[in-house]
Design a protein that fits this description.
This protein has 291 residues and is mostly helical. It is built from 11 helices and 4 strands. Helix 2 packs parallel to helix 5, helix 2 runs antiparallel to helix 6 and helix 6 packs antiparallel against helix 7. It is globular and about 80 Å long.
């Protein structure tokens, strides 16, 4: 019994804080700035879900460390965030700062600060992912995958936890593309013999400038072609699109409209609501709007 306790106590240790080293420094910069972003994002009006203070700090840790942990697990390594206490320490400190800075006077969210820090942390995490891919001997596509996963996985975790569509899948200012482009620039610079910090500096500047310009100039990924007009949601309730012109007869009938032999649309008289309660409106459309 005594021997077992002695062994257990000797196996528990604080761990060695490691702050320097090319990869470690870059990774800590990425983790810290992304943790600050996580705290800001958790307090952003479209993500806030009555989080507690602990919940917001947890979101900061999730966003700051989630990408690096996912990246390391993918290459079959124990995540550095678990072996080096510096990661959690930096992420906690930056999360607290983000919590305190989220709002200025009144209820105005610091959107500018959030977008600036997102633009700042995105290239650093992409560079760390690319470095990790080269270190473990991945091919180019694998390296680029880590360059994209590292900076975006944490955002995915926070978005899903907040019940909003993940940033990677909705229209935005070239979020994932910025990470991939940064990874490509770093690979080229590294292949040309640039030192670690020179390659990182070149990749960061280009990635950061592209992201900021995309935000400033409203450059956005193209949307997939939208279906015209009416489409049925899962609950079966018909929804109007931007226009009714050119829609199928089935969709129009579901709205209480009919098409004559000339292709003209008419309100179905049987579905009109009583006078004084929206004359001429189809009952189906009125009911749908009241929901």
């Amino acid at each position: 019994m005594i021997d077992a306790l002695t062994f257990a106590s000797s196996a528990i240790h604080v761990g060695g804080f490691k702050w320097t080293g090319n990869f470690t420094t870059i990774d800590l910069i990425a983790a810290g700035t992304n943790a600050l972003n996580g705290a800001l994002l958790a307090r952003r009006p479209d993500h806030y879900k009555n989080w507690t203070v602990v919940g917001i700090i947890a979101m900061a840790l999730l966003m700051g460390l989630g990408g690096g942990i996912t990246r390391d697990v993918l290459v079959n390594q124990v995540p550095g965030a678990l072996t080096n206490p510096a990661y959690i320490t930096v992420a906690l400190a930056c999360g607290i700062i983000g919590y305190l800075l989220a709002y200025k006077q009144g209820q105005f969210f610091r959107e500018g600060l959030f977008q600036f820090m997102t633009s700042f942390s995105l290239p650093w995490y992409a560079i760390a992912g690319a470095e990790k891919g080269v270190a473990v001997g991945l091919p180019v596509l694998g390296i680029l995958a880590l360059a994209a996963i590292g900076p975006t996985a944490g955002r995915w975790y926070v978005d899903v936890s907040s019940g909003v569509p993940p940033k990677q899948f909705v229209r935005g200012e070239w979020f994932v593309t910025t990470a991939v482009m940064t990874g490509i620039v770093w690979i080229i610079a590294d292949a040309l013999g640039a030192s670690t910090w020179l390659a990182a500096g070149i990749a960061f500047v280009l990635g950061y400038l592209f992201r900021v310009l995309a935000l400033y100039r409203a450059w956005e990924e193209p949307l997939a072609p939208e279906p015209k007009g009416v489409y049925l949601h899962d609950d079966g309730r018909p929804m109007l699109g931007r226009k009714l012109k050119g829609k199928s007869e089935r969709e129009l009938r579901s709205l209480g409209l009919v098409i004559d032999e000339h292709g003209e649309m008419h309100v179905d008289p049987a579905l009109k609501v009583p006078a004084g309660d929206g004359v001429g409106q189809p009952a189906a459309a009125k009911q749908g709007g009241a929901r």
